[in-house]
Amino acid sequence: MKNRIKSILLTGLTLSVLTSCSKFEELNTNPDAAVNATAPMIATNLILNITDNNISTGKGFLEPAMLGKSVLYTEFPEDYQYNYLGRANFDGLAVLTNVEKMIAYAPEGPEKNSFTALGKFIRAWKFYNLTMQVGDIPYSDALKGESDVIAPRYDSQKAVFAGILKELDEADQLFAQGTAFQGDPIYKGDPTQWRKMVNTFELQVLLNLYKKTADTDLRVTERFKSIVATRPIFQSNADNFQLVYSDKANQRYPFYKLGNPSIIYPMVSQVPISLLKELQDYRLFYYANPSSVQVAAGKAVSDYAAYIGTDPAMVYSDMTRVYTSKDYSALNSRYTELADSEPVYLLSYSMLKFMLAEATLRGWITGIPTETHYKEGITAAMKFTASYTPDNVLYHHNRVITDAYIASYVSSDAVKLKGTTEQQLSQIITQQYLGTFLQAPDNVAFYENRRTGYPKFPINPASNNNTPADKLPLRWLYPQKELDYNTDQVKAAINSQYGGSDDFNQQMWLLK
């Protein structure tokens, strides 16, 4: 029984700060420390759990970029770099047991509405990211260990998405009836800002359901159109859901050099570098450093030819030879030299504009042309990069992104939308990919490639750790804890979805 209780989904454990004190704790209480939990304290914990705790430092910070084929890491062969996804982990759900505690501690009235809305959003965010990894998950029965639900059943992925959409709709309504609240490190407790975030996130969820537009229960296109027409959504980069860094302990940029031995190992992939060169995109000079070999041979740091991308599908032994040769582009120095480098966002205004461009292209919404959303997405992404980069040749290599440059770029023949619907979709997704370099760390680049096929990721059977070796994996495996302690329920989910085969290439409901 003790082993069964170890499974995160089977327990109702909460943080130690929220539990009653033992006699030992009573005798050793710090008189200067808070001993009673409050709604703002729990709100801070929940918000940081999905932001700061979700953004790794050092090598871990680069793992989503490895999976998204924008960065390579050369110290050792990396699982994500070579397409081994491993098992998902449900442990992160434990923090959701604090949602009810936060609401219970909140004062009655409009402030409770805001805390309740925040709890619904956090739940939706966590469950969304888990179902995107594996498919069916415990949802309606999850986190009920305190009610003796020790073997939570798995909900279908459709039911999970329906629940997520419902919670997001309710969060928007509650924030609309709420007031400012304490404990929010992102939006300072502004309920209007949170409404924008909740609704923009719901649009992202809906766009991932694009294959389910015929489902009358989910009402995908109807919901999408209604949100765009009637609810607040992001309006500028000021609305980004992001963490801002400073040169203070525990507040520095995640890949800053201090205490980070990983800075010598990354190389920028040929996937973004080739695209940036093809488009004559100045972001190349902000994302990467020139090859020292090419500069020594006489090329200027502002010369596109001085930037050498490395094939992310290259076998590891060949990659190490490239690394030894020094003829490659490393990450731009601003990522390691600036403690207060650019913020890291999980969802941004530029991402929203690309969502709206795709939705318009698919005919879900009308009024503003696809091209307008597309150009505004590029503009927002470029201004984000430029605004957080000091005017220093080390960081822009004499290719400064100005308003005039952006205007000429979005109007250039190489960038303008053209061709078939599928070709335009490729352009939209590719621009989002380029704009989210070292951003959107919840594996957005991988999910967008899985969803659309864009941009094309190279596959090398000689290095690919997926089987079959000529394909990219589609999903993570279920957690070992679930197989060990919730065996019947997880096996039922595997049988109903995947014919009993829990492997990396099974197509979840979302993708069918």
Describe this structure in words.
The protein has a domain at 1-36 and 88-233 and 477-512: Serine Threonine Protein Phosphatase 5, Tetratricopeptide repeat, CATH 1.25.40.390. The chain has 22 helices and 4 strands. The strands form 2 sheets. A two-stranded antiparallel sheet has the order 1-3. Helices cover 45% and strands 3% of the residues. α15 packs antiparallel against α16 (370-387), α15 packs antiparallel against α19 and α16 runs antiparallel to α18. It is mainly alpha-helical and 512 residues long.
Cα gyration radius (Å) = 23 Å
Number of strands: 4
Biggest sheet strand line-up: 1-3
- How far apart are the first and last residues' alpha carbons, in Å? 39 Å
Largest sheet: 2 strands, antiparallel
Mean residue pLDDT:
93
Give the number of helices: 22
CATH topology of the domain at 1-36 and 88-233 and 477-512: Serine Threonine Protein Phosphatase 5, Tetratricopeptide repeat
The CATH architecture name of the domain at 1-36 and 88-233 and 477-512 reads: Alpha Horseshoe
CATH class of the domain at 1-36 and 88-233 and 477-512: Mainly Alpha
Tell me, briefly, the overall form.
globular
Could you name the ranges where pLDDT drops below 50 across 5 or more consecutive residues?
A: 1-29
Task: Annotate the secondary structure layout.
Blueprint: H1 2-5, H2 23-27, H3 39-50, H4 59-67, E1 71-73, H5 97-105, H6 110-134, H7 157-176, H8 191-207, H9 220-230, E2 241-243, E3 266-268, H10 270-278, H11 283-287, H12 292-296, H13 316-325, H14 334-337, E4 344-347, H15 349-361, H16 370-387, H17 393-396, H18 403-410, H19 421-435, H20 444-452, H21 480-485, H22 487-498
Antiparallel strand pairs: 1-3, 2-4
Helix pairs in contact: 3-5, 3-6, 5-6, 6-7, 6-8, 7-8, 8-9, 15-16, 15-19, 16-18, 16-19, 19-20
